[in-house]
Amino acid sequence: MRYLIILILFIPLTSLAQIKIDKVGDSWDLKVDSALNKIKLIDSVYYSHILRVCDTVSFWNVNFSSCYGGYGKKGTIIISSKDMRSNDIDDICAVLVHESLHLKILMNGVEMDGNSEESLCYSYEKSFLLKVPGVNSYLIKHADDMIFMMKAKGNLCPQSPQVHIPH
């Protein structure tokens, strides 16, 4: 009887630690589950962070992943069909880590300009990727490229000075 009471007390804790993964695509839910398990094995801090800010993983048919959420509540990570079709678990891990930081920013009501927020999220993603054994170098390069572009605020081409021509 005592063991039954202990089991009943811990059921709510295990259900809170679950993320709902929509079942679509060609076993996409299993790929996301594999990515979450890989994150947990590589660094449980990143995994715990995802659990604190995300309650659902969904998918959409566009070329970029995103998320939505709000102040004080968990949100949804939306993985693009492009990222899912890459068949690279490390890419899915990177998306989950990156978007989880966006959710934390939303959840805490932090106001940031878009470029600063993206740069921060790509830096967080890169920090995780550097811990992944055998990670594809293109993922780190992509994060580096995006950090550079966001810090440059899209101003990668210098403006030509305005020349005043007297009449």
**Stretches with pLDDT under 50, minimum 5 residues:** 1-16, 156-167
Strand order of the largest sheet: 1-2-4-3
Average of per-residue pLDDT values: 86
Percentage of residues in DSSP E strands: 5-15%
Coarse shape: globular
SS field, number of helical segments: 7
Radius of gyration: 20 Å
The total beta strand count reads 4
Describe what you observe in this structure.
- The protein has 167 residues and is an alpha/beta fold.
- The protein has one domain: Zincin-like.
- It is 57% helix and 13% strand.
- It has a four-stranded mixed β-sheet.
- The radius of gyration is 20 Å and the shape is globular.
Task: Output the keywords.
167 residues; alpha/beta; Zincin-like; 4 strands; 57% helix; disordered C terminus
